[in-house]
Design the sequence.
């Protein structure tokens, strides 16, 4: 577009009667200017479409699957903690019962799904998606283990299951995954690991998502607050994802396990990463602002309603995350 024309049109339009700006259809007095006006309007429409998620308000639902779940607020809580056969593994009978009880919860929403023991709940929302989509996961673990116990769905293998059964799942981005745990997995071509921090933990302990963490990791302390500053390291990584998504126009589903956060910021019942709350918020909101997000789920917690100190820390983090997403 001609810069002079653009400047005149948008910033210095000629005055018409009584000091009012002349309407654009009168200002465009020849074919060339009509074409340029059309391009200007199209560009504005495209910008608005690309940022459509900025005004999208997703409803919030909290699903309680265990007696140890500690939600600070009672609003929109779906209590299905009476269902047996759900802790870490999901048997067929429990799966059908859960699906029945959450059938009225829309996929296009923010779903809080208890602790990381129940991260497999993502599958029950993903299976509703019929169009091609990408999955973006924030998790300290791969959740890519092979099925055990007769092929039962598990919190430690749900991403592998999604990869295998959903033909419309285009790409899986794993953000914040411990490189040491990822090194032992054989991922499909759909999976892309986003090693957002070069100094992430690389310990190759034998812990997997089949038994709870028994002792806290005492490694480097990280400040939870960054006073609103966006960490360039992680922002650059998610920026690449966003650019890729905008090229493909493929909608995304975001799944967050808060064990990706450092122990100074959050208390989870699994080994934890090194991400701060602000880094997580910056990454997720960047994706939400510029991609078509068709659903979000969030899990993580102490798994112990009697852990007063840990749950208090978690509530503060949860409130910050939720405030940024709504």
Sequence:
């Amino acid at each position: 577009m001609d810069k002079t024309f653009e400047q005149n049109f948008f910033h210095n339009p000629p005055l018409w009667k009584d000091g009012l700006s002349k309407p654009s259809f009168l200002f465009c007095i020849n074919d060339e200017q009509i074409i340029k006006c059309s391009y200007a309007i199209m560009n504005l429409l495209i910008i608005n479409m690309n940022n459509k998620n900025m005004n999208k308000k997703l409803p919030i639902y909290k699903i309680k699957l265990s007696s140890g779940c500690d939600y600070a607020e009672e609003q929109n809580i779906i209590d299905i903690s009476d269902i047996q056969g759900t802790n870490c593994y999901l048997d067929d009978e429990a799966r059908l019962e859960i699906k029945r009880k959450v059938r009225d919860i829309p996929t296009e929403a923010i779903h809080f799904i208890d602790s990381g023991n129940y991260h497999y709940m993502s599958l029950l929302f993903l299976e509703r998606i019929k169009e091609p989509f990408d999955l973006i996961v924030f998790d300290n673990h791969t959740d890519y283990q092979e099925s055990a116990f007769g092929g039962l769905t598990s919190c430690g293998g749900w991403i592998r299951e999604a990869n295998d059964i959903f033909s419309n799942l285009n790409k899986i981005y794993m953000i914040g995954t411990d490189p040491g745990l990822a090194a032992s997995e054989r991922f499909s071509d759909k999976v892309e690991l986003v090693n957002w921090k070069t100094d992430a933990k690389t310990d190759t302990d034998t812990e997997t998502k089949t038994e709870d963490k028994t002792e806290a990791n005492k490694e480097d302390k990280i400040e939870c607050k960054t006073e609103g500053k966006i960490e360039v390291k992680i922002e650059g990584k998610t920026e690449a994802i966003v650019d890729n998504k905008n090229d493909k126009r493929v909608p995304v589903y975001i799944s967050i396990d808060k064990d990706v956060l450092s122990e100074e910021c959050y208390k989870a019942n699994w080994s934890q990463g090194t991400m701060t709350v602000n880094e997580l918020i910056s990454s997720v909101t960047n994706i939400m602002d510029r991609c078509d997000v068709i659903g979000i789920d969030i899990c993580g917690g102490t798994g112990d309603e009697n852990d007063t100190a840990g749950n208090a820390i978690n509530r503060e983090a949860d409130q910050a995350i939720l405030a940024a997403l709504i």
Q: What stands out?
A: The chain has ten helices and ten strands. The radius of gyration is 23 Å. The first strand starts at residue 60 and ends at 64.
